[in-house]
Amino acid sequence: MDYRPIFFIVGILLVMLGVAMLIPAIVDAAAHNPDWPVFLASAFLTLFVGGTFILMNRSRFGFLGVRQAFVLTTMSWIVIAAFGALPFTFSNLELTYTDAFFEAMSGITTTGSTVVTGLDSAPPGILLWRSLLQWLGGIGIVVMAIAVLPMLRVGGMQLFHMESSDRSDKMMPRAAQVSTTIAAIYLLLTAACFAAYWAAGMSPFDAVAHSMTTIATGGFSTSDASLGHFQSSAVHWIAVCFMILGSLPFLLYFETVRGRATALWQDTQVRWFCGITILSFAAMVYWRWRDTDRPFYDTLRDCAFNVTSILTGTGYSTADYTTWGTFAVSAFFLFMFVGGCAGSTSCSIKIFRFQILFSVLRTQLLRLWQPHGVFVPYYNRKPIDESVTEAVMVFFFLFILTFGVLALALTVVGLDFVTSISGAATAIANVGPALGDTIGPGGTFTSLPDSAKWMLSAGMLLGRLELLTVLVLFTPGFWRA
Asked: Residue 169 above 50 pLDDT?
C-alpha cells in the first residue's frame, strides 16, 4: 500500500486544524488570558507537521484506493484527536496527556464526555476550542474529506458512507457539490442557532459556543451545569429544536431548498425519528408528572429537553435524570442506542437500521404465516438489497459484541457495574453523559483510571466510524490484499 496519498490528505487536515487553533489564541489574547501562547505554539506545531506531510507527499497526490480510504478515515480521526489534545495538555488546566486525548477524542467524535471541571471559570480559549472540536467533528471534517477525495478519483459518497453511514444513492452528481452544499447548510444552521440563543439572552460568547455544539449534537457546554446553568425556558426550547434539526439528513435539507418542500416529511426515516421522539416525550412526561408536584409546563420542558438530548446523542442536561426513578433510568439507557437519522451529525445505531431490521422481521413473519407467498423487505418504498440487509445485521452483531467486550474490560480495571455498562454504552453510542453518580449527568469522567479513559477513547472512535471502518484494519486479509 502506498501511504503517501494518505499522509498528503492528513497533512491538509492538520493544516486546517492548525488554522482553527489560531481562533482561540486570538480570543485568549483579547481576553488577556495567559493561555494564548499555548494555542499559538500548538498551532505552529500542527501547521509544521501538516505542512511537512503535504510537502513530502505532494508528488504522490493521485489515485486513492479503497484500502487506502479505510486507512485514511481511521488515521485522520486519530491524528486530529492527538494534535487537538495539545492545547488541553499545556494549558492552565494542567491535564495529563491521557485526559487531554480523552477530551479531544470526545470532542472530535461529538461524544460530549468530559474530564474538565470548573468550566464556569475556565479560560475562554479552552471553552471555544472544545466547541470548535465538536463543530469540526460533527460534519466539518467529513466535508473536508469529501472535498479532497474527488481529486483522488474516489467517489466522495463512499468515504462519507464509511464515516456516517449515509444513504448510498447519490442525490448530486459530484462529491465536491455534496461537500459544498453540506457546508453551506451546516453554517446556516449554526448561524441561525447562534442568533436564536443570543436573542434568548445568552451572551455572544456562550451563544457561539453552544450553537456549534448543538448543531453538531455534541453537548460540550461552557458551564459544569450544562444548559441547566441558563434558567431560561426559551434557551431550552431553542436547544430542543436545533438538536432535532442537527439529527435530520442534511441532504434532504438541500432537496427542500431546491423546491421539494415535502422532501423531509416524505422520508420514512424522518417520520420514524419524529414518532419515536414524540412517544418518548409522552412516556417520560407521564412518568414524571404523576410523581411530582412541579407545574406541568416545567415537567414538559425538562422531559422534552433531556429526552431529545440523549436520543440525538447530544448529551446536554438540565437535570439529573438518574434521580427520576427506575423507569426513567432504564428508558434513558435505551435512548442512548437510538440516535438520529443517517446523514446527520448524530451517532449511535441510527433510525434507518431499526427500520431495515423491522422490515426484515416483518417479512420473515409473513413468510412463516404464508410459506408460498412472495414478500420483499422495503425501505423508503424501495426493495432492500440483500447486501444491505447483511451489512445491517453484521453491524448490530458487532455493536452488541463491542459493547459487551468494552463493558467487561471496564470492570476488569475496577469500575462498578453501572459505570462500566453505561460508560461502554455512552462511548460506543457517542452520547456523552452516562448513568450513576460518577459519570452521570451530574458527574465527569475525571476520576476514572487512565486505562479506562483509553478504552473509552477507543470506544468513541469505533462508534463514530461505524465499527467496521476501524475493525477491518485488524483483519490480516486487509493488509495482504
From this structure: no
